[in-house]
Every structure is written in structure tokens, then in C-alpha cells.
Amino acid sequence: MQHRRSSSIYISPNKDNSSAAEFAWQRLTDIRTMKLSATVSDCRVINLPENKSRRLHMTSLMNDHGIKFTFSDGVNGQSHALNCARAHLAALDSIKTFPALVLEDDVSPATGNLTIPEVPKDADIVYLGVSPFGCFPWARPYVQRFGHRALYNLALASTENSDWLRLHSMAGAIAILYMTPTGLEAWRMAILAAIKRSKPFDVFTAYKMTSLNVYAPHRPVFLEEPSLQRPLKHVTPEQRLRWTATPLSPVEEGMIVNAPTKGGTIRARADRRRDHHLEWSLLQ
């Protein structure tokens, strides 16, 4: 199978389609970037061995970009949430060296080249794929009202610098770069907590983001490959693609956003904690 490049979303600016300032910014960014293959020491791709099409897709993608990898077996079962959690846990348990990249088997590059900016020196975890879903803090009033659930438009990220966003809350796990054993162990414990409660594990990792240094580049490196996605009720393929193809919008302290829920639209405000992190507060 040929690697699909038709899903690339972002095009490097040029003099014909962007301002001179944006073009200069892009050139500066290009100078600071490096190939992902030069950053990663270990890589796991989560895949059910019987899913041959995804296996071929990921083999082609990894080989095209010079990333050495090992498949980590996915998990079958009745619960999609538990299957995902146990598959990611098995991948983490097999990692020996850092930085270590864990990919799900339905991703494609968001741009033609798999490059990333120089990673912040204090990074524990880097998300190379993003989503618009985030969570309120793990506190009794929020759990009683929403359950352990991620909500659309509640991904919470602030600007760290011209290359990176600091993540405070975001659900999603299509492409995670583990920079330190501390980060991996924190995510491992979060996954175990999710398995104990039979809940989506990326909600529990979202809860933990305020206790570590978690980053994402301003522009995602990976997105979900449209041709490999299962149909979802009430979500069009175009809507689903936008979830992972659209860069996160940075949030500042005091900013208020609207989030749709089954019970109607709610309003949430980004509040500063005692540390440098932000968290959502529900506005009545």
C-alpha cells in the first residue's frame, strides 16, 4: 500500500499565499525543526495483527520516514474503552528507552515531512496529535454532573513559546511522545485508574496533565487518516477529520468558552491554579 499523502492539511506558506511576516515566521520555524526520526529512540505502533490494511499502512509510513518501530498488539473485547486502555498499557510496559513514541495505527502525517521543533528541555510528555476534547478537573461536583467524560471544545492549552503549547487538559492518544520515565509512569498509573473504573483512559491522562510538563506543537504532526476511520453516529467524516487536523487555539486565564453537552450548551472559564497551570471552572 502506498502511503497516502492526500490527507495532508497544511501547506508551507509562500509569497503567493501568505503575508511576508508569516512567510518569515515559517522559515524561522523550519530552521528550528528536526526530523522526528532523529528524535525518537524507541517506537511502538498499536495494531491488531489481523487488521492487515492498517498494518501495511503504518509499515509504509514508518519506512517512508525512517522511523524504526515495533508493533504492539492491540486488544479485542466488548468494551472499546477497555480495549484501548489495555493496548496502550501493553505498549508502555514494553518501552525501554526514551524518547519513546507510541502511535495508534490509523494516523497519517499532517504535513509532508515528519519534523518537530526542538522539544522543551523540561518536557515529560509531548502530544504530536491533538483533539478539541478536554475535561473539567477530577472533582466530585464535575464527576457527578458529567461523569468521567471529555467534552468538545474543552481542550485547554496555553502558549508556551512560538513553537509549543503547554497542555493543561486534552483527551486523545493517537500520537504520544514519552520524553521521561516520570511521564510514562504517570500515564501508566492513569491508565490503570481508568481500567479500574472501566472508563476512557485519555480522560484520566487529561486529569494528570496539570501535574507534569506536557506540550504539543502549535501545528499537529499527526492526524487520523480519514480512509481508516469507522463511521460514527451523528458525526460526518469531515467533522471527524477536523478534530485532529485543526490546531488547538491557545487559551488565556479568564477566557470563557462554550461547550455543547447532551443537556445543552455550558460555559466554562479558564482559571489559574496556584502553579502555572490552568483548569476549567463551570459557570452557572
Characterize the structure shown.
Helix content is 30%, strand content 26%. With 284 residues, it is of the alpha+beta class. The strands form 5 sheets. Strands 3-2-4-12-7-13-11-10 form an 8-stranded mixed sheet. α4 packs antiparallel against α6. The longest helix is centred in the middle third of the chain and has 17 residues, at 181-197. The protein is globular and about 50 Å long.
Quick structural gist:
This protein has eight helices and 17 strands. By secondary structure, the protein is of the alpha+beta class. It has one domain: Spore Coat Polysaccharide Biosynthesis Protein SpsA, Chain A (Alpha-Beta Complex), CATH 3.90.550.
Unreliable spans are 1-31
Order of helices and strands: HEHEHEHEEEEEHEEEEHHEEHEEE
Overall domain count: 1
Beta-strand segment tally = 17
* Major β-sheet profile: 8 strands, mixed
N- to C-terminal separation? 52 Å
Content of β-strand: 25-35%
- Lateral arrangement of strands in the main beta sheet: 3-2-4-12-7-13-11-10
Mean pLDDT: 90
Outline: globular
Helix content: 25-40%
Radius of gyration: 18 Å
What class, by secondary structure content?
alpha+beta
List the helices and strands and how they pair.
Layout: H1 20-32, E1 33-35, H2 36-39, E2 42-47, H3 52-64, E3 70-73, H4 80-93, E4 100-104, E5 107-109, E6 115-117, E7 125-127, E8 133-134, H5 140-146, E9 151-152, E10 156-159, E11 164-169, E12 175-178, H6 181-197, H7 201-208, E13 214-217, E14 222-224, H8 237-245, E15 256-261, E16 264-272, E17 278-283
Parallel strand pairs: 2-3, 2-4, 7-13
Antiparallel strand pairs: 1-6, 4-12, 5-14, 7-12, 8-9, 10-11, 11-13, 15-16, 16-17
Helix pairs in contact: 4-6, 6-7
